[in-house]
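WP5 quarterly update. Target: Exopolygalacturonase. Source organism: Rhamnella rubrinervis. Length: 383 aa.
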Amino acid sequence: MFSFVFVVNVEAQAAVFDVVRYGAVADGKTDNTKAFSEAWNQACQTRGSTMVLIPKGTYLLNPIIFEGPCKGRTGFSIQGTLKASTDKQYFGLGYWINFRYVNDLAIDGRGSLDGQGPSAWPYNSCSKASSCRVLPTSLKLDFITNSIVNGITLIDSKQVQINLFACQGLKISNVKIQAPADSPNTDGIHMGKSIDIEIFNSEISTGDDCISLSPGSRNINVHNVLCGPGHGISVGSLGKGPDEDDVEALAVRNSTFVGTENGVRVKTWATNYPSNVRNLTYDQIHMVNVRNPIIIDQKYCLTGNCKQGSSSSQVQIRDVKFRNIWGDSTSEVAVDLECSQSRPCQGIELNNIDLVYNKGPARSYCSNAGGVALGRQTPPSCL
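Structure tokens (predicted):
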């Protein structure tokens, strides 16, 4: 047995690979990429249950890829603080910590990922140009299946905090995500082409969407989430390019939004590319000082990112249920349903809505929206 390998058995009979035994130094200055990589490779290629352990302390870590497939259930236990590099040579990679092609992965612990975002935020130009530089995501999960992320804290990502691509059967729970309200594009959890995802018992404070769903998101279950500050929970943006996969079967329940720009939102670009959004349910949602508590925006556009002359989205939205939503709006229009002229929204349900404007009577606005209003309606329904 080589001197750098450290394996012990714990109660769960998992072999533990301590990064310190592979040369990691918890001084916040030493690059530990090699030690982490060696610990992961050894754990991943060991049969049975294994765990990479990051003990307490602060570990500097340059961009790294942890790749499978692995030979058994693989844990990644973060008890210390991982600190991202501020070297600008890494800003264009698009990831900091990237797990790929792993089944039965468990990322957990009471530690944190510090993305050191303030070093990169001044270089974010995405609000001005569609060809902006993609800054690193703190935790990028690609093709991860039947896995969990539990208990960790993410702080100040350079861009998106957690990004899911082509994942299936993933549970994210008891995570804390923290970034200032003015930090650019720091979505809490963003996903695309992912199915059977559950997010629960978590707190997300960020400068963009707390949770965002892009094309191909299906069977997404969100519950007991505290969102704020941020831009709310958003489906979209959709319809920007051809051949986008549909978004369907989202449920957001028993959650609270505090001081967010939006509450529950669906947004599609004002372009001519068709796709579908269907079967969304929002139930038992508390809004506290939210600017746009309920919003469908099919004319979404950022400076420099829209086709000239485009005015009517080709994304079809149907079967969206807003149930038992209450609290206060910081804008007069508490319910704003601005649907496409060419493809009007179908099957919208407003059921027991109680939203008040903090400066006077609230109102609702509907355009090209078809559906039904049930139960209490404050403001009066426009359907």
